[in-house]
Amino acid sequence: MQDFIFKYEMEVRDYECDFQGVVNNSVYQNYLEHTRHEYIKTIGLDAVELSNNGINLMVTRVEIDYKSSLRSGDKFVSVLKMKRISPLRFGFVQNIYRLPDEKLVIKALVTGTSVNERGRPELPEELIKVWGLD
Known about the structure:
With 134 residues, the protein is α+β, with helices and mostly antiparallel strands. It is built from three helices and five strands, in the order E-H-H-E-E-E-E-H. The protein has a single domain, classed as Thiol Ester Dehydrase, Chain A (Roll), CATH 3.10.129.10. Helices cover 22% and strands 40% of the residues. The protein has a five-stranded antiparallel beta sheet.
C-alpha cells in the first residue's frame, strides 16, 4: 500500500450485504466513488465549483477485479493513486484492503475525463498540476 497517495478507512454496514452475508458487488463502486470524492476534497478541489467553472469530471470506464469479500462490520481501507491514461484521460488506480490483516479485496481502475462547457473532452492544466499527471 506504500505507493498509494490517499487512504480512507470505512466500515461495512449491514444493509450493504446481500443474502449470502457479503458486500454486494455493486456497493464496491460506492466505496470507490466516496474515496475519490474525499481525495478530491483533501487536495482543495470542489467538484461543484469545477462544474460551475465549466470543468465537468466524468467517469468513462470502471474495471474491477474482485479478489475476496467483505462482510458486515468489517473495517477496510480504500486507497488510490493517479495515473495518466492519455492526453485527455486520467485514471484513479484504487484498491480496497480488509483491516487489520490488509487482505486485498478488490483492485480497480476508474478512468475519467473532463468535459468543457461545449461538451468536448479537455484536461485542464489545473487538474494535471494538482493530480501530478505531467
